[in-house]
């Protein structure tokens, strides 16, 4: 039964940097359409996990599976083509390109073949560009950036830039969207709007989401399941309520200065 195979699975995943165990013995299973939160103090291995899953780092040991297929040592572009998209902890936009072109460029990664152009008897590049732009415009509308389509990305206010990154990631039509601290630097209203946006992306496109976040409000309201990391290890996992109630998690994290 295909639905028994998790969308994403890590097994015994580990990464050391010159003896420092940034992540060890990591295991997680994420189902299709699920929204999973990853929390933990600074330096607990959250971004390292994202880098290992998306091919930006090679693990010291362990494995990553996408729908049962090992993707462990694939390069980032191939992981992206297989259906995993991500954002980074810091903004990584093409500042000199327009808002629209930022998303269109990402959407074009989806149309590597010239087949539609051949079928329609049109120049393939033109057709691919048009399909990508349609996707981009739909995502700009969803992320509330439609009116800013022709502005340079660098000129956007901070909160708009963060939503543009999400639009860009979604333009590849991923099965799994991985967001690294998407609410960092956002105010309360922006953070709530972000949670609504992430939920609507899941509902509309059926995408699963893994979100690293320090904002407990966002994690507790948005995520169906939460995994807690500390010093590179999983120290707790469950529903938001279960995780909040766990003494071990409280000691390691929720009572620390990060919970403010
Ligand atoms: N490229 C790297 N080279 C050396 N050490 C790294 C590198 N990336 C992360 N680390 C270290 O690994 C640990 C986990 O980092 P990270 O995954 O970024 O934590 P988090 O995202 O949870 O704050 C930290 O001690 C960090 O300094
Ligand atoms: Mg990080």
Instruction: Tell me the fraction of residues in β-strands, as a range.
Output: 15-25%
Helix content: 25-40%
Q: Please provide the count of β strands.
A: 10
CATH fold-level label of one domain:
Rossmann fold
* Ligand inventory: adenosine-5'-diphosphate, magnesium ion
* Global Rg: 19 Å
Rounded mean pLDDT score: 90
Low-confidence blocks of residues: none
Order of helices and strands: EEEHEEHEHHHHEHEHEEHH
Note the quaternary state here: single chain
Global geometry: globular
CATH architecture of one domain: 3-Layer(aba) Sandwich
Largest beta-sheet characterization: 6 strands, mixed
Derived from helix and strand composition plus strand pairing, the structural class reads: alpha/beta
Q: How far apart lie the N and C ends? A: 44 Å
- CATH top-level class of one domain: Alpha Beta
Spatial order of the strands in the main sheet?
A: 6-7-8-3-9-10
**What is the overall number of helices?**
10
CATH superfamily of one domain: P-loop containing nucleotide triphosphate hydrolases
């Amino acid at each position: 039964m295909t639905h028994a195979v998790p969308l994403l699975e890590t097994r015994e995943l580990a990464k050391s940097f010159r003896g420092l165990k940034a992540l060890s013995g990591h295991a997680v299973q994420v189902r299709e359409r699920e929204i999973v939160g990853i929390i933990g103090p600074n330096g607990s291995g959250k971004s390292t996990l994202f880098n290992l899953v998306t091919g930006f780092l090679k693990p010291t040991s362990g494995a990553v599976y996408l729908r049962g297929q090992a993707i462990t040592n694939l390069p980032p572009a191939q992981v992206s083509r297989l259906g995993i998209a991500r954002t980074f902890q810091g903004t990584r936009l093409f500042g000199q390109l327009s808002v629209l072109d930022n998303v269109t460029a990402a959407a074009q990664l989806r149309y590597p073949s010239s087949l539609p152009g051949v079928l329609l008897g049109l120049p393939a590049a033109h057709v691919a560009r048009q399909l990508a732009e349609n996707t981009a415009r739909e995502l700009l509308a969803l992320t509330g950036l439609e009116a800013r389509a022709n502005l340079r990305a660098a000129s956007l206010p901070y909160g708009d830039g963060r939503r543009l990154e999400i639009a860009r990631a979604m333009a590849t039509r991923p099965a799994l969207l991985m967001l690294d601290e998407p609410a960092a630097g956002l105010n309360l209203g922006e953070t709530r709007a972000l949670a609504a946006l992430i939920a609507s992306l899941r509902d509309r496109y059926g995408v699963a989401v893994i979100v690293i976040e320090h904002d407990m409000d966002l994690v507790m309201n948005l995520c169906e399941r939460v995994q807690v990391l500390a010093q590179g290890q999983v120290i707790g996992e469950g529903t938001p309520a279960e995780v909040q109630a766990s003494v071990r998690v409280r000691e390691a994290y929720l009572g620390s200065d990060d919970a403010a």
